[in-house]
Amino acid sequence: MSPTATNTNAAQDDGGPSPLSLVLSYPNLTSPSTIASLRRAMVGLGFFYLSDSPLESERDRLFALTRRFFSSNHTSPEEKRSIEQEKSRHFRGWSGLGLEHTQDKPDNREQIDLGIESPAFPQGLQPHYLNLYGPNQFPASIPELRDAVLSYMEKAEEVTVHLTKAIEMALGVEEGRLGDCLGLEGKEEGFEKIKALAQRSTPPTDAELEDALPRFLPYERMKLVKYGSEGNPQGVGAHRDGGWITLLATDQQPGLQVEDVAGQWIDVPYKPGCILVNFGQQLERVSSGLIRAATHRVHIYPSPDGRVSLPYFSMPSLRAVIDPIPRGEMSAEALQEEESRDAEKRMGGRKTVVPEGDLHGSATEEFGHTAWRSLIRSHPNTFQRWYGKVGA
Ligand SMILES: [Fe+2]
In what residue span(s) does the Fe2OG dioxygenase domain sit (predicted)? Predict the structure, then answer.
C-alpha cells in the first residue's frame, strides 16, 4: 500500500474535525493517487502536510541553532542589534518584536530575515527590486548558523522544484510550464553577471544595464522566527503569501491558523515528520485562480516560551512576468476538481479578511516589482532608512 494522502479522520488525533487533514508523501509525490490529493489541496484551502521530505534531515539542527540565537542566555541585545535588518538595504537581518507589520498592525514576533546568498548589485540602480539581491547577516557568536541556513535552503529549493513538477502534473500542463517561472537554471550565470556589474568603476547607463542584467534572477527568502509569549495576540496578521510555494517547519506549540471558505479560523496542528506547504499568490495567478493561496495567521497563545517556526518562501524569478494559463489548457481532472467548490459558490465566493489578489502583478509587470511592494509594506522602517527619500 502506498503511504499517500489521507483525507479521513487524521484530524481526530489533533483534537477535532478539520478540513486540514491532507498528508502527502514526498517520496510518492508523483504517483497518480497523490497527484489526485494534491489537486484537492490546490482547489481547497491551499494548505497541506508533506511527510518525509528532504527537509526532515535538516530541521533539527536549524531549530536548535535558532533557539540558541533567540535565547537571552546566549545572545545579547547588542549582538542582535549588530545584525539588525535596518542595516541591510537587502532587507536581511534581525528585527525585534513589533517591527514587521501585517495589515498595518505590528506583529508580535522577532526574526532573522534571510534570502538567496548572492552578490549585491551596485547601489542606486533601477528598478529598486535589484536591491533584493545581496548577502545575509548572520550572528558572529553562532558561526555554524550560516551553513545550517544555506544547506536548509538548498534542500528547500529541491523540494520546491519537485512540488512544482507535481503541480504541473496536477494541472495537466506540459513540464516546465511552471518550473520556467522560477528561473533556477540561470542562477550561476546570473551571479557572474552581477559580480561584473559590481566591479565596474562607473555606474552603467540604462542601456548598458539592460544588456548586462541576467535574464533570470531566481529568488527565495526564509525567516527564523520566534513569536512573543504574551501580549499582542497578533503573532502575524491575516495574509496570503505573495510568492510561489511556502514550506513551513514549526515546533509543537499552537498558534498557526488557516481561514476556511466561510471565513472561520481553523487551528493547524503540528504533525511529527511533516512540514506544512501552502501556495502563494503567484501560483494562484499563474493558474488563473484554480490554485488557492491560503489565508493564514498566527495567534499568540500565552506560553512560558514563544513558538518557533522556520518558513521558507520560494518565489518566481524577479524578472518573470506571471502569465495566467487559460482554463482551456488545463486537464479535465483539474477543472472537475474545481467544481468541488460548489458550497463556496453558493455562498457567493470565499469569505475572507484579506483582499483577493492583493499581491498579483499586472499583465506586463516583472515579479520583482510585486516582491518589492510586498517587502516595503512589511518593513517600513528599513524602507524609510534606505529608500524613503527616493520613493518606491
Ligand atoms: Fe505566511
Answer: 218-316
Report how far ligand 1's centroid is from the alpha carbon of 65 (Å). 22
Distance between Cα 237 and ligand 1 center (Å): 9
Measure 182 CA to ligand 1 centroid, in angstroms.
19
Q: Ligand 1 centroid vs 311 CA: distance in angstroms?
A: 8
332 CA from centroid of ligand 1 (Å): 31
Report the range of poorest mean pLDDT among 155-164, 257-266, 269-278, 350-359: 350-359
Report CA(307)–ligand 1 centroid distance (Å).
15
* C-alpha of residue 230 to centroid of ligand 1, in Å: 20
Largest CA distance in the chain: 64
Domain 5-387 falls under CATH 2.60.120.330? yes
DSSP result, 17-71: --S---EEEGGGTTSHHHHHHHHHHHHTTSEEEEES-TTHHHHHHHHHHHHHHH-
Amino acid at 57: S
Residues with CB under 5 A from ligand 1 (ion): 241
Q: What is the DSSP letter of 376?
A: H
pTM for the whole structure: 0.91
Average pLDDT over residues 235-250: 93
Between 52-56, 161-165, 235-239, 324-328, the lowest mean confidence (pLDDT) is in: 235-239
Q: H-type helices in 109-219, by residue range?
A: 144-171, 179-182, 187-198, 206-212
C-alpha 236 chain-centroid distance: 14
Q: What is the pLDDT of residue 390?
A: 52
